[in-house]
Amino acid sequence: MALSSLLVCADESTAQMLRRILEGLGITVEHCQSGSEAQLQLAKTRFDSLVIDGENESEATELLRKARSSSLNQPTLAMAIVGKENNVRYMFALGVNFVLYKPVSEERAWSSFRAARSLMQRERRRSTRVSITADAALDYANVENVPATLVDLSEHGTAVESQRKLPPDCRIYFKFALPGHTSLIRLSGEVVWEDSSGRVGMRFVNVPTSSRRVLSNWLKSVPAAVGAAPQVPRPAESIVKTTAPVSGVEKSWQDSGMDRLRASLGNRRGQSRHACRLGADVYRRGIPVPHRCSLSDISSGGCYVEMPTPFPAGTRVEIIVRTQDMKLRTQGVVQSRHPGFGMGVQLMLKTAGDHDQVQSLIRLLEQSGEEEVGPASDPWTR
Fold it and tell me: Which CATH number describes the domain made up of 130-224?
């Protein structure tokens, strides 16, 4: 299912450029020229991102309030396009996650939206997920009744743990009973991601009406039943704003939204990661065939490799990055994979020299103040 964005911009030339970039990243776009028109869309449609031109600040802030108070779009990633006249601090307080400053260059817009898309892709949630422990039986291909355990659940998907590795490219049928219910829920789904621990994220593909009704009613009753704490927006003065000079994008995360997203699925890491856009050759260990890819972030502990057909979790890889000033050759192990998007790799830095090389690349990124530090003539560094 494609990611979607609501673009609110009255300037036609800017809107055309942003729309071209979003669609180039595989994001469908709904364009509105006014805030009143956008409010109607937010009331009836759920979007993965909301992009607002701050030219009319009162209209933009009102739209942000509407989005954050909406049951459909409260968790939606929000980006504001602002100028010097805008009160950026106030926009962050209203729930903006990214800020893109005017004048907007096409190169910077590509970089910013690519970073935003990575966040949307790594932990896309079309509804709140709740923790659960429930036995399930899986059927796929010629295999039947594979035991598994549901570990979280929503109306649109689930995460499961299975003793068997699940195939990433076939329909999986499973059945389970919800706590407090005796009737079985039967539905089908497809694998969206998997990690090295054996946990698999699945998106529901076909849910019978009766099963969907039981599932929906159960999810609505869960907070009262298990004592889940309600989400309470933080006051404006307690919001943490982090400026990332490497990407040129200011970000703000709130406990009720992006903070959870950063803390999950590949973001539970001890080192600070630096956003980047570096061309790389990635090899499976022992196979001398390079895969031309891009690194979208890196730290002394790991990196994220963007590629349409990522390797399975546990695969040992060798990564070669070339810039104008250095060549980095390092090894790692795939920790998580997201088909169609990329994979998280834990770096295996065995010597002091290995650590020094990675730190030199990170310092180069910090000093340049840019995401791209490779030679301009090399298309794989763009």
Answer: 2.40.10.220
Helix (H, G, I), strand (E, B) or coil at 346: strand
Q: Could you tell me whether strands 49-53 and 77-82 are parallel, antiparallel, or unpaired per DSSP bridges?
A: parallel
Which CATH number is 3-122 given?
3.40.50.2300
In angstroms, rounded to a whole number, what is the distance separating the alpha carbons of residues 125 and 58? Answer: 29
Question: Strands across the sheet with 3-8, in order?
Answer: 27-32, 3-8, 49-53, 77-82, 98-101, 249-253, 240-244
Q: Contact, 252 vs 239, CB < 8 A? A: yes
H-helix or E-strand containing 320? strand 316-322
Q: Which two tokens stand for residue 135?
A: 């036995």
Judge whether 313 and 334 are in contact, CB under 8 Å: yes
Tens-place pLDDT, residues 299-313: 888 888 888 788 988
Q: Which helix (H) or strand (E) holds 166?
A: none
- The second-level CATH assignment, the architecture, of 271-381 is Beta Barrel (2.40)
Q: How confident is the model over 19-58, as pLDDT tens digits? A: 999 998 889 999 999 888 999 888 888 888 899 998 899 9
Query: Does residue 227 come out as left (phi exceeding 0), alpha (psi in the -120 to 50 range) or beta?
Result: left
Q: Where are the beta strands (DSSP E) in 240-301?
A: 240-244, 249-253, 274-284, 291-298
**CB-CB contact of 140 with 170 (8 Å):** yes
